[in-house]
Every structure is written in C-alpha cells, then in structure tokens.
C-alpha cells in the first residue's frame, strides 16, 4: 500500500507494511502507536523501520513514557528481587531509579535488582526525561517475610 504524505494527513490503522512517500527535500513528521495483543513489558518482534530513498535507515525518536508501572511491587525478605519499570521509547530511554529520593541506578535497564536485607517497606521511583518534562512513577515495595509454623506435640 502506498500513501503520499502531506501536512496534516492521517494514515489509518494498518496491521502489516505501510509505505509512505515524501518528495525529495521534504520530511514527514509521524505520530504512531505500536500495540500488542499480549501483555509484556516490550513489543518483541514489532518495530518501525524508516528508510530514505537510498535504503539507509533514518533517525527515529520516540518520546519516552512510563505507562504500565505497577504502583505496588513485592519482595521476599532475605532474597534477591527485581523492581520493574517498563519504559517505552526510541532510542531506549535512560531510567533513573531512586530509593527514598536518592539515585541508586541510572541506565536503560527496565529492571532494578536488589537484595532484601531489612523487613521495612521502602519507597522507590523510576523516572524518564521527556521533551515536555519528567515522567516519574512511585513504587511501594512491600517486603514479605517467611512464616514458619512449628507444631509441638
């Protein structure tokens, strides 16, 4: 399918390949959403490829977002655990992880690994820098203890 791209033209939803042509010397500004029918932190195997007329890839920027961060996450006392912050964006956004307001990790990893050595619940957050400001999500970590039941006869 081929569509000519002009200012303010909307290309409807499609499920496979879509070719957009722009006259030489012009550019196309695209807003798009990629969706998956399966719940996952990333869209595996689903991608957008942008090429110029010489089959060279173009630069693609997608504003980062934190849409599906669980507000409450759980960990087991005296075990290692991971907090999840599924961030979307291209290139992969840098995620700043904070524990009680202090930066503990700054990377592109959507996972923050920690060892639970105390039985107190901590406040964590993950954040990404967007063109329109900071997108920050608070995470309450609930530490659960093992319960031992001793039966005495």
From TrEMBL:
SUPFAM superfamilies per the UniProt record, alphabetical: Immunoglobulin
Q: Which residues form the Ig-like domain?
A: 64-140
Question: Mind giving the lineage of the organism this protein is from?
Answer: Eukaryota, Metazoa, Cnidaria, Anthozoa, Hexacorallia
Q: What's the protein here called?
A: G2F domain
Question: Which InterPro entries would you find in this protein's record?
Answer: Ig-like_dom, Ig-like_dom_sf, Ig-like_fold
Record organism: Desmophyllum pertusum
């Amino acid at each position: 399918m081929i569509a000519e791209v002009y200012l303010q033209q909307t290309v409807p939803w499609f499920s496979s390949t879509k070719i957009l042509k722009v006259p030489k010397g012009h550019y196309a500004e695209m807003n798009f959403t990629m969706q998956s029918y399966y719940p996952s932190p990333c869209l595996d195997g689903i991608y957008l490829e942008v090429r110029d007329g010489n089959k060279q890839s173009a630069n693609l920027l997608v504003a980062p977002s934190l849409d599906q961060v669980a507000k409450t996450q759980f960990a087991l006392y005296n075990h290692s655990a991971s907090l999840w912050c599924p961030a979307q964006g291209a290139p992969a956004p840098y995620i700043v992880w904070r524990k009680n307001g202090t930066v503990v990790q700054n990377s592109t990893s959507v996972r923050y690994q920690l060892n639970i050595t105390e039985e107190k619940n901590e406040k964590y957050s993950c954040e990404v820098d967007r063109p329109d400001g900071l997108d920050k999500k608070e995470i309450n970590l609930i530490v659960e203890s093992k319960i031992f039941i001793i039966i005495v006869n």
